[in-house]
Design a protein that fits this description.
2 domains, 6-stranded mixed sheet, 2 helices, 6 strands
């Protein structure tokens, strides 16, 4: 085997490795994109006790605490009629993460959105504290 053939073989081997690594990188990027956008998936909801008497459809901002952060999921809740029966469905419209804890407060941007959408769509809006199982009309929140 000549030196030139040996170099060509090494180049082909490295090109193959680079191609394989690029494919893996693309797959990992796709997984990361899916994970970071998972909050946008429509969900069939398990009933939350404090929301059982609230009207449908409605706008809802769900608040939960994870570590030192408060996470707000803003969306529309409605009853979906299907062959499996009536399903309560949550369609996410936004997500905000704030540092600290909030009690009967909404983050500024999402709070403005839910108030505007409530008036524009003529729908009731509520803040639901998932951790304490309490719900409040959005008008009562800061």
């Amino acid at each position: 085997m000549t030196l030139e053939q040996r170099l060509n073989d090494l180049i082909e081997e490295r090109d193959s490795q680079i191609e394989s690594l690029e494919e893996r990188l693309t797959e990992e990027k796709d997984k990361l994109n899916l994970a970071s956008n998972l909050w946008m998936v429509h969900r069939i909801e398990k009933p939350i006790e404090c929301t059982s008497n609230l009207p449908l459809p409605r706008l809802e901002m769900r608040q939960s605490i994870e570590g030192y952060q408060t996470i707000f999921h803003y969306g529309i809740v409605y009853k979906h009629y299907s062959e499996m029966g009536d399903l309560i469905t949550f369609i996410p419209l936004g997500k905000t993460t704030c540092t600290g804890t909030y009690k009967k407060q909404t983050p500024f941007r999402e709070g403005v959105h839910i108030r505007h959408d409530s008036k524009a769509l003529g729908m009731n809006a509520y803040l639901v504290d998932v951790d304490t199982n309490e719900s409040y009309p959005i008008e009562e929140c800061n």
